[in-house]
C-alpha cells in the first residue's frame, strides 16, 4: 500500500515501511501483481502481490543465506535445482561453486524473470549463463515428475506458502524432493519469520521431518523482511556435516566462515521448542 510517499507492507500484524521516490513498474502476470519501486535508502524494491521480495541494497543477505550453508558443505555439488528464484540472486550465488555443472531453475512466473533482468541486472546477472536451464513450470508438479536420485542440492527460494505456493510445505512435496535428491543430497528452503510466522514455520518443520532423516534450522537476518529475523530449514537423509568443504569462487557480502557457523546457532527458545531432540 502506497500512502504519502511511503510503502507499507501491512498484511500481517506487523508493518514494514519504506520511503519511496518513484514507482518504476506496475503490472500483473498470470499469477501475481509485480511492482518495482525506487526507494530512498534501499534502492529498487520488487513487490509481488504487495509483499517485498528483494531490494538492491539487502538482497545478498537472503541469497547468500539460502545458498552457501548448503553448497559449501556438500561434498561435490554438481547438479542443482532451484525452485522459484526468478530474480536470479540464488542462481548467481550457486554459480560461485566450480563444481556446479548444471542448474535447473523451476520458476512458475516468466514475468518475474523478465522484470528482474530489466530492473535488477546485478541480481539477475547469471540468468543467461549456459549452465542454467530455465523451466517455466509449477514446481509442485515438476518435482513430482522428477527422476529419482538426480540432484545434489535442491533450493526452494519461494514466496510465502500461500496461493499457488501453498503446496511447497506439504508432506507430499517434501517426500518428492527427498526422492529427487541423491543419497547424500541436501535440501534447503526459506521458512519465514520466526517472530511473525511461527505457525507456518512449525508446519514446515513438522512436514519436512516426515520426509528426511536429518533436519536443522538456520537463523539469518534480512533487513527488508517483516521482523528482520528470517529462518531457513536444511535437510538430508545423510547426517549433516556442517563443516565447510568448498569456498565460493567469488566475492560474498554477508556469508563467510564465521557467519556460516553462526547461521546454525539458534536462540535458546527456538532450540528448546523445536530442535532439542533432533539429530542433525
Structural class: alpha/beta
Low-confidence stretches: none
CATH class label of the largest domain:
Alpha Beta
What would the principal axes of the Cα set say about the shape? globular
E-strand count? 13
Q: Mean of the pLDDT scores?
A: 95
Provide the β-strand percentage band: 25-35%
Radius of gyration: 18 Å
- Quote the CATH topology of the largest domain: Rossmann fold
- The N- and C-terminal alpha carbons lie at a distance of 42 Å
Oligomerization category of the chains in this entry: single chain
Strand order of the largest sheet: 9-8-7-10-11-13-12
Your description of this structure?
The chain is an alpha/beta fold and 280 residues long. The chain folds into two domains: 2-54, Roll (Spermidine Synthase, Chain: A, domain 2); 59-275, Vaccinia Virus protein VP39 (Rossmann fold, 3-Layer(aba) Sandwich). Helices cover 25% and strands 33% of the residues. It has helices spanning 59-71, 89-94, 110-119, 139-144, 171-180, 198-208, 257-263, 268-275; strands at residues 2-3, 6-12, 14-28, 33-39, 44-48, 51-55, 79-84, 102-106, 132-135, 151-157, 181-193, 214-221, 229-236. The strands form two sheets. It has a seven-stranded mixed beta sheet with strand order 9-8-7-10-11-13-12. It has a six-stranded antiparallel beta sheet with strand order 1-2-3-4-5-6. The model has no long low-confidence stretch (mean pLDDT 95).
Amino acid at each position: 500500500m502506497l500512502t504519502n510517499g511511503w510503502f507499507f507492507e501491512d498484511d500481517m500484524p506487523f508493518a514494514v515501511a519504506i520511503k519511496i521516490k518513484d514507482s518504476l513498474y506496475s503490472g500483473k502476470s498470470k499469477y501475481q501483481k509485480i511492482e518495482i519501486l525506487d526507494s530512498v535508502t534501499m534502492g529498487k524494491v520488487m513487490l509481488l502481490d504487495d509483499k517485498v521480495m528483494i531490494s538492491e541494497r539487502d538482497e545478498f543477505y537472503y541469497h547468500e543465506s539460502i545458498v552457501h550453508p548448503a553448497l559449501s558443505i556438500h561434498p561435490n555439488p554438481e547438479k542443482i535445482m532451484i525452485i522459484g528464484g526468478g530474480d536470479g540472486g540464488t542462481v548467481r550465488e550457486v554459480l560461485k561453486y566450480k563444481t556446479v555443472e548444471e542448474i535447473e531453475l523451476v520458476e512458475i512466473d516468466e514475468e518475474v524473470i523478465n522484470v528482474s533482468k530489466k530492473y535488477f541486472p546485478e541480481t539477475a546477472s547469471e540468468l543467461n549463463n549456459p549452465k542454467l536451464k530455465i523451466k517455466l513450470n509449477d514446481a509442485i508438479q515438476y518435482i513430482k515428475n522428477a527422476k529419482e536420485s538426480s540432484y545434489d542440492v535442491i533450493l526452494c527460494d519461494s514466496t510465502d506458502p500461500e496461493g499457488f505456493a501453498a503446496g511447497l510445505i506439504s508432506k507430499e512435496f517434501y517426500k518428492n524432493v527427498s526422492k529427487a535428491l541423491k543419497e547424500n543430497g541436501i535440501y534447503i528452503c526459506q521458512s519465514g519469520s520466526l517472530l511473525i510466522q511461527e505457525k507456518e514455520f512449525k508446519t514446515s518443520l513438522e512436514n519436512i521431518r516426515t520426509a528426511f532423516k536429518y533436519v536443522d534450522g538456520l537463523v539469518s537476518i534480512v533487513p527488508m523482511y517483516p521482523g528482520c529475523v528470517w529462518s531457513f530449514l536444511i535437510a538430508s537423509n545423510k547426517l549433516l556435516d556442517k563443516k565447510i568443504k568448498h569456498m565460493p569462487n567469488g566475492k560474498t557480502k554477508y556469508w563467510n566462515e564465521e557467519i556460516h557457523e553462526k547461521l546454525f546457532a539458534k536462540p535458546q527458545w527456538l532450540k528448546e521448542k523445536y530442535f532439542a531432540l533432533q539429530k542433525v
